[in-house]
Protein backbone atom coordinates (compact mmCIF):
# COMPACT_ATOMS: atom_id res chain seq x y z
CA UNK A 1 0.00 0.00 0.00
CA UNK A 2 1.40 3.39 -0.99
CA UNK A 3 1.33 6.44 1.28
CA UNK A 4 -1.34 7.98 -0.96
CA UNK A 5 -3.58 4.91 -0.57
CA UNK A 6 -2.99 4.97 3.19
CA UNK A 7 -4.08 8.62 3.34
CA UNK A 8 -7.20 7.86 1.33
CA UNK A 9 -8.19 5.04 3.66
CA UNK A 10 -7.36 7.10 6.73
CA UNK A 11 -9.32 10.10 5.47
CA UNK A 12 -12.31 7.92 4.56
CA UNK A 13 -12.53 5.98 7.81
CA UNK A 14 -11.78 8.99 9.97
CA UNK A 15 -14.66 10.79 8.26
CA UNK A 16 -16.99 7.89 9.01
CA UNK A 17 -15.80 7.50 12.61
CA UNK A 18 -16.08 11.25 13.25
CA UNK A 19 -19.52 11.55 11.66
CA UNK A 20 -21.45 11.52 14.99
CA UNK A 21 -19.14 14.24 16.33
CA UNK A 22 -19.42 16.38 13.20
CA UNK A 23 -23.20 16.00 13.41
CA UNK A 24 -23.33 16.84 17.11
CA UNK A 25 -21.15 19.95 16.83
CA UNK A 26 -22.97 21.13 13.70
CA UNK A 27 -26.52 20.65 15.03
CA UNK A 28 -25.68 21.98 18.52
CA UNK A 29 -24.36 25.20 16.97
CA UNK A 30 -27.94 26.03 15.93
CA UNK A 31 -29.30 26.57 19.49
CA UNK A 32 -26.09 28.42 20.36
CA UNK A 33 -26.65 30.84 17.47
CA UNK A 34 -30.41 31.13 18.00
CA UNK A 35 -30.71 30.90 21.77
CA UNK A 36 -33.45 33.53 22.02
CA UNK A 37 -35.59 31.69 19.50
CA UNK A 38 -35.44 28.44 21.49
CA UNK A 39 -35.99 30.35 24.75
CA UNK A 40 -39.16 32.00 23.41
CA UNK A 41 -40.32 28.69 21.96
CA UNK A 42 -39.99 27.09 25.37
CA UNK A 43 -41.64 30.01 27.19
CA UNK A 44 -44.64 29.71 24.86
CA UNK A 45 -45.35 26.32 26.41
CA UNK A 46 -46.12 28.03 29.69
CA UNK A 47 -44.32 25.38 31.73
CA UNK A 48 -41.64 26.49 34.19
CA UNK A 49 -38.15 25.36 33.33
CA UNK A 50 -37.31 24.77 36.99
CA UNK A 51 -39.65 22.81 39.23
CA UNK A 52 -39.49 23.00 43.00
CA UNK A 53 -38.55 19.74 44.68
CA UNK A 54 -38.61 20.99 48.25
CA UNK A 55 -37.61 23.75 50.66
CA UNK A 56 -36.29 23.36 54.16
CA UNK A 57 -34.61 25.34 56.93
CA UNK A 58 -30.86 25.00 57.02
CA UNK A 59 -28.10 26.55 59.08
CA UNK A 60 -24.45 25.69 58.54
CA UNK A 61 -21.25 27.72 58.20
CA UNK A 62 -20.06 28.05 54.62
CA UNK A 63 -16.28 27.89 54.09
CA UNK A 64 -14.44 30.61 52.19
CA UNK A 65 -11.72 28.44 50.66
CA UNK A 66 -12.60 27.16 47.17
CA UNK A 67 -11.59 23.55 47.77
CA UNK A 68 -13.41 23.49 51.10
CA UNK A 69 -16.44 25.08 49.42
CA UNK A 70 -16.52 22.33 46.80
CA UNK A 71 -16.32 19.67 49.49
CA UNK A 72 -19.12 21.42 51.39
CA UNK A 73 -21.23 21.40 48.21
CA UNK A 74 -20.52 17.71 47.62
CA UNK A 75 -21.63 16.77 51.12
CA UNK A 76 -24.70 19.00 50.87
CA UNK A 77 -25.84 17.23 47.69
CA UNK A 78 -25.31 13.85 49.35
CA UNK A 79 -27.31 14.99 52.37
CA UNK A 80 -30.17 16.07 50.12
CA UNK A 81 -30.07 12.87 48.07
CA UNK A 82 -29.17 14.71 44.86
CA UNK A 83 -27.21 12.45 42.53
CA UNK A 84 -25.34 13.19 39.33
CA UNK A 85 -21.93 12.68 37.71
CA UNK A 86 -20.93 16.36 37.97
CA UNK A 87 -21.48 19.18 40.42
CA UNK A 88 -20.56 22.79 41.13
CA UNK A 89 -20.54 25.11 44.13
CA UNK A 90 -20.01 28.85 44.13
CA UNK A 91 -21.10 32.02 45.93
CA UNK A 92 -22.47 34.78 43.67
CA UNK A 93 -22.66 37.06 46.72
CA UNK A 94 -22.16 37.00 50.48
CA UNK A 95 -25.68 35.81 51.29
CA UNK A 96 -26.13 33.07 48.66
CA UNK A 97 -24.53 29.74 47.91
CA UNK A 98 -25.39 27.95 44.67
CA UNK A 99 -24.76 24.22 44.46
CA UNK A 100 -25.83 22.03 41.58
CA UNK A 101 -25.61 18.60 40.07
CA UNK A 102 -25.81 18.21 36.31
CA UNK A 103 -25.57 15.79 33.41
CA UNK A 104 -26.41 15.97 29.73
CA UNK A 105 -30.00 14.91 30.45
CA UNK A 106 -30.92 16.61 33.72
CA UNK A 107 -29.86 19.21 36.24
CA UNK A 108 -30.67 19.99 39.87
CA UNK A 109 -29.77 23.19 41.65
CA UNK A 110 -29.67 23.99 45.35
CA UNK A 111 -29.81 27.59 46.55
CA UNK A 112 -28.76 28.19 50.15
CA UNK A 113 -29.93 31.61 51.35
CA UNK A 114 -27.60 32.22 54.27
CA UNK A 115 -29.43 35.31 55.52
CA UNK A 116 -32.77 33.48 55.63
CA UNK A 117 -31.24 30.10 56.60
CA UNK A 118 -33.20 28.30 53.89
CA UNK A 119 -32.43 25.68 51.24
CA UNK A 120 -34.34 25.51 47.96
CA UNK A 121 -33.96 22.47 45.71
CA UNK A 122 -35.16 22.64 42.10
CA UNK A 123 -35.02 20.23 39.15
CA UNK A 124 -34.64 21.45 35.58
CA UNK A 125 -37.05 20.12 32.99
CA UNK A 126 -35.43 18.35 30.03
CA UNK A 127 -34.86 20.52 26.96
CA UNK A 128 -33.34 19.09 23.80
CA UNK A 129 -31.57 22.33 22.85
CA UNK A 130 -29.87 22.43 26.26
CA UNK A 131 -28.81 18.82 25.82
CA UNK A 132 -27.10 19.79 22.55
CA UNK A 133 -25.40 22.92 23.89
CA UNK A 134 -24.30 20.98 26.98
CA UNK A 135 -22.63 18.35 24.81
CA UNK A 136 -21.05 21.01 22.59
CA UNK A 137 -19.56 22.98 25.45
CA UNK A 138 -18.53 20.07 27.66
CA UNK A 139 -14.85 19.30 27.97
CA UNK A 140 -11.96 19.63 30.35
CA UNK A 141 -10.98 17.68 33.43
CA UNK A 142 -12.37 19.81 36.26
CA UNK A 143 -14.91 17.22 37.41
CA UNK A 144 -14.08 14.05 39.34
CA UNK A 145 -14.90 10.57 38.15
CA UNK A 146 -13.67 8.21 35.46
CA UNK A 147 -16.65 8.78 33.15
CA UNK A 148 -16.35 12.57 33.08
CA UNK A 149 -12.58 12.47 32.60
CA UNK A 150 -13.03 9.87 29.85
CA UNK A 151 -15.28 12.35 28.02
CA UNK A 152 -12.52 14.95 28.26
CA UNK A 153 -9.98 12.47 26.86
CA UNK A 154 -12.36 11.52 24.08
CA UNK A 155 -12.88 15.17 23.11
CA UNK A 156 -9.08 15.57 22.90
CA UNK A 157 -8.83 12.48 20.69
CA UNK A 158 -11.65 13.75 18.45
CA UNK A 159 -9.96 17.16 18.08
CA UNK A 160 -6.69 15.48 17.11
CA UNK A 161 -8.60 13.31 14.63
CA UNK A 162 -10.20 16.46 13.13
CA UNK A 163 -6.72 17.83 12.47
CA UNK A 164 -5.53 14.59 10.90
CA UNK A 165 -8.68 14.49 8.75
CA UNK A 166 -7.96 18.03 7.55
CA UNK A 167 -4.30 17.31 6.80
CA UNK A 168 -5.09 14.12 4.87
CA UNK A 169 -7.79 16.00 2.93
CA UNK A 170 -5.27 18.67 1.91
CA UNK A 171 -2.78 16.01 0.89
CA UNK A 172 -5.34 14.19 -1.23
CA UNK A 173 -6.46 17.44 -2.85
CA UNK A 174 -2.89 18.39 -3.74
CA UNK A 175 -2.37 14.94 -5.26
CA UNK A 176 -5.02 15.70 -7.90
CA UNK A 177 -3.36 18.28 -10.20
CA UNK A 178 -6.53 18.79 -12.25
CA UNK A 179 -8.39 20.01 -9.14
CA UNK A 180 -5.71 22.20 -7.59
CA UNK A 181 -7.04 25.45 -9.06
CA UNK A 182 -10.64 25.01 -7.94
CA UNK A 183 -9.57 23.56 -4.63
CA UNK A 184 -7.19 26.45 -4.07
CA UNK A 185 -9.96 28.91 -4.86
CA UNK A 186 -12.31 27.22 -2.38
CA UNK A 187 -9.60 27.15 0.27
CA UNK A 188 -8.70 30.81 -0.31
CA UNK A 189 -12.35 31.94 -0.19
CA UNK A 190 -12.95 30.06 3.03
CA UNK A 191 -9.77 31.43 4.61
CA UNK A 192 -10.52 35.04 3.57
CA UNK A 193 -14.09 34.95 4.91
CA UNK A 194 -12.96 33.36 8.18
CA UNK A 195 -10.10 35.82 8.62
CA UNK A 196 -12.32 38.82 7.82
CA UNK A 197 -14.90 37.87 10.47
CA UNK A 198 -12.14 37.04 12.96
CA UNK A 199 -10.63 40.51 12.61
CA UNK A 200 -13.93 42.40 12.51
CA UNK A 201 -15.91 40.76 15.29
Secondary-structure map with pairings?
Blueprint: H1 3-17, H2 19-33, H3 35-43, E1 50-57, H4 66-80, E2 86-93, E3 96-102, E4 107-113, E5 118-124, H5 128-137, H6 146-174, H7 180-200
Antiparallel strand pairs: 1-5, 2-3, 3-4, 4-5
Helix pairs in contact: 1-6, 2-3, 2-5
Structure description:
Helix 2 (19-33) crosses helix 3. The chain has two domains: 3-40 and 145-200, no CATH class; 50-124. Strand 4 (107-113) and strand 5 (118-124) form a beta hairpin. The radius of gyration is 23 Å and the shape is elongated. The longest helix has 29 residues, at 146-174. 57% of the residues lie in helices and 18% in strands. The protein has 201 residues and is an alpha+beta fold. The protein is built from seven helices and five strands. It has helices at 3-17, 19-33, 35-43, 66-80, 128-137, 146-174, 180-200, and strands at residues 50-57, 86-93, 96-102, 107-113, 118-124. It has a five-stranded antiparallel beta sheet with strand order 1-5-4-3-2, covered by helices on one side.
Overall shape: it is elongated
Please report which band the strand proportion falls in: under 5%, 5-15%, 15-25%, 25-35%, 35-45% or over 45%: 15-25%
Secondary-structure-based class equals alpha+beta
Low-confidence stretches: none
Overall number of strands: 5
Helix fraction bin: 55-70%
| Distance separating the two termini | 46 Å
* Major sheet strand order: 1-5-4-3-2
Number of helices: 7
Strand count, sense and barrel status of the largest sheet are: 5 strands, antiparallel
Topology as H/E string? HHHEHEEEEHHH
Rg is: 23 Å
Question: What is the domain tally?
Answer: 2
Q: How would you state the average pLDDT, rounded?
A: 93
Amino acid sequence: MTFSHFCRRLHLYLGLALLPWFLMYAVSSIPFAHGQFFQKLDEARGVPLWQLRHERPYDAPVPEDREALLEFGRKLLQELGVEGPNFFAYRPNRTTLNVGSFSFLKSTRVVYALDRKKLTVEDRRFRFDQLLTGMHARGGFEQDGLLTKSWGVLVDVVCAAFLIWIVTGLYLWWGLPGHRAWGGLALACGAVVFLWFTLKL
